Amino acid sequence: MHNRGQVAQETVDKVNAIIEQFGYKRNILASNLALNKKFRFAVFLPKSETLEYWKSQVDGIEKAALEFSKFGIVLDYFFYDYNLISFRETVKKVMQFECDGLLFAPIFYEDSVLFLKEYQQKKIPVVMIDSNVSDSNEHAYVGQDAFQSGYLAGRLISFAVKNERHVLIFKITREIESTSVYLQRINGFYSYFKDHDELTNFKFSEVTIKDSGIDQLNVEMFSDVNSVFVPNSRAYIVARFLDENNIKGVRIIGYDLLNENIEYLNKGVIDFLINQRPEQQGYMGINYLYKKLVLQESVEKTQYIPLEIILKENYFPVKRLS
To answer: Does the pTM of the predicted model rise above 0.85?
Structure first.
């Protein structure tokens, strides 16, 4: 059965005939346990100390690691600061590390594409979470359809609007923001209005500020604005400014159930949050590698997380995976 070449062909034929007759399948888990086989998965993510979204991803990853540890799965973490220099330094460490599979969050688009192209030489499974930078489906992906989530945001903005409406797309970036998911959301948002050309009463503008604080905002930015779309998890920055300056009647749509976002959702300042379920992404990413490598199953490469719309009225605190 193992094709070790140490058995007479006549015996091989007899064994194969019996296997076919009775439909025998080797118990892969039992074989791995008997051989004490280990599977090393590298986890390549941003540091999560001050980033609530990535902390949730790690929670899901660690839940899966604990669940599958009895099957020989071992995780090695490679964390980088949320900047390009740290990312590139960590790429070198990941390239040198020998493992069986990789879980990767491709935050910086161009450098991530280059890394994945080089990493392909290792010929091991790669699963991306949060952002999909693979056009040819050579790697697996677990996360939302970013374009569709932006399209959904456009639909939410358009609801129950009869008069002219000025929509401000608020790009709140860190030192560098080149994530594929960020740009896909904006493209999806605009595409909704292109596909619904009957919505002629909307006009759009964009503002980009650094993620260093609320001091970069001013009242004039919102003088004739009716709706704000924040294509990442920092909607609370806009909401805080509007709340502190008592600016009413501005619809805000953003992403992720961060504590700060939830605060302004409950106050009624943020209208909609699109939840990406980061814990589920982390768990499903490790689960993909487990099924692919340990169970040797055929696994669907693209696994989309449902687009979940959260309002003040339907928000309930989510219990951590345990």
So the answer is: no
Enumerate the β-bridge partners of residue 43.
77, 103
Element (H, E) at 254: strand 251-255
Residue-number span of the structural domain to which 210 is assigned: 146-275
User: Are 238 and 168 in the same domain?
Assistant: yes
What's the pLDDT tens digit per position in 236-251? Answer: 999 999 999 999 989 9
Q: Distance between CA atoms of 185 and 168, rounded to whole angstroms?
A: 14
Q: What is the CATH number of the domain that holds 103?
A: 3.40.50.2300
- Do 300 and 217 lie in one domain? The reply is no
Instruction: Give the pLDDT confidence of 17-42 residue by residue, as tens digits.
Output: 665 655 555 554 444 444 457 899 99
The answer on 69 and 185 residing in a single domain is no
Instruction: Locate 132 and state its tokens.
Output: 């999909």
Strands of 251-255's sheet in order across = 202-210, 165-173, 227-229, 251-255, 272-275, 308-310
Q: Based on the structure, what is the number of domains in the chain?
A: 2
Amino acid sitting at position 321: L
| Pair 18, 24: CB distance under 8 Å | yes
Question: Is 314 inside a domain boundary?
Answer: no
40: in domain: yes
Same domain, 88 and 122: yes
What b/e sequence results for 189-224 when a residue is b if at least 16 CB atoms lie within 10 Å of its CB, and e otherwise?
A: beebbeeeeeeeebeeeebebeeeeeeebeeebbee
Q: What is the DSSP string of 80-144?
A: E-SSHHHHHHHHHHHHH---SEEEE---SHHHHHHHHHHHGGG---EEEES----SS--SEEEE-
